[in-house]
Each structure stands twice: as structure tokens, then as C-alpha cells.
Amino acid sequence: MRQWNIDPKLLCRKHLLGEHVECHMLVGAINKGKRINGFIKKGLIQVHTTRKQHDKLATEMERRGYKHKSPLPEFESFRAGKVDQKKSIRDLGNRCSECRKNILTKLKRRRINGKVNVE
Questions:
Q1: How far apart are CA 72 and CA 114, in angstroms?
Q2: How far apart are CA 35 and CA 103, in angstroms?
Q3: What is d(CA 104, CA 29) in angstroms, rounded to the nearest whole number?
Q4: Is the distance from CB of 92 to CB of 15 less than 8 angstroms?
Q5: Distances (CA, A) of 83 to 27, 40, 111
Q6: How far, in Å, CA of 21 to CA of 54, rounded?
Q7: 3-state DSSP call for residue 35?
Q8: How far is residue 87's CA from residue 84's CA, in Å, rounded to a whole number?
Q9: In whole angstroms, what is the distance from residue 3 CA to residue 22 CA?
């Protein structure tokens, strides 16, 4: 599981839909009592913002013309995890050409030595 936890407008189609699925997977894991400590320790998830991020993702999906028919189930939210948004932007920009294009145009970021620079 991984949450980018950034503005969904920066995500390409694949990463937008992927993060949406990850929100559902995280809530499913929590509701089934599965351990998520490893994801929390590695900074891959941020439990307490999952519902808000899911709603932002759903709004962006609908803005792009996708049909969102999967409300996030209820779950016991708790303050845990911290996703580094600057690192997420840098990682996405350096691994996905479509996300890089969105990041560079929408955030007015620069490329240094072929990589996305995030101040």
C-alpha cells in the first residue's frame, strides 16, 4: 500500500486510480484488523487523512469524466503515519512522464539534471 497524498490534479490517470484503490485497500485492512505498522513506519500511508484524500481523489475522478461509485466504508480512523508530500512529488515526477508533465506545468517546478526539483 502507498498513498502519494498530494493534490490529485497532479496525478496521471494510472496514479489517480491507483491511489483511489489504495485508499480502499487501507480501509479494508484496518477493518479486518490487519497490521499496517510497516507501511506507517516507512512513511507510505497516513491513516488520519485517508477519508479526506479519498474524497479529493473521487472529486478529481469525476472532474475527468470517470464514474465514481465506491464510497469509502466507515472505519476507525486514528492519527498515524506521515507521508512526505515533497518526496511523493519528486518520486512521481521522476518515475512517471505524465505525472512529471503535470507537476512541471501545474506547480511550475524545474528540472535539474533531468530530475524534478522540489524546493
A1: 38
A2: 33
A3: 34
A4: yes
A5: 17, 9, 23
A6: 9
A7: coil
A8: 5
A9: 7
Report the distance separating Cα 96 and Cα 72, nearest Å.
27
Helices 13-31 and 97-106 cross at an angle (nearest 10°) of: 100
Query: Where is 115: in which H helix or E strand?
Result: strand 115-117
Handedness of CA 83, 89, 93, 99 (dihedral sign): positive
The string of DSSP codes covering 45-78 is: --GGGHHHHHHHHHHHHHHTT-----PPPP----
Query: For every one of its 119 residues, what pLDDT tens digit does the chain have, with 9 covering 90 and above?
Result: 999 999 999 999 999 999 999 999 999 999 999 999 999 999 999 999 999 999 999 999 999 999 999 999 999 999 999 999 999 999 999 999 999 999 988 887 655 556 666 65
Taking residue 44's Cβ as centre, other Cβ atoms within 10 Å add up to 19
Which residues does residue 110 pair with via DSSP β-bridges, in sequence order?
Answer: 117
CA–CA gap between residue 72 and residue 22 (Å, rounded): 11
Cell of 68: 465514481
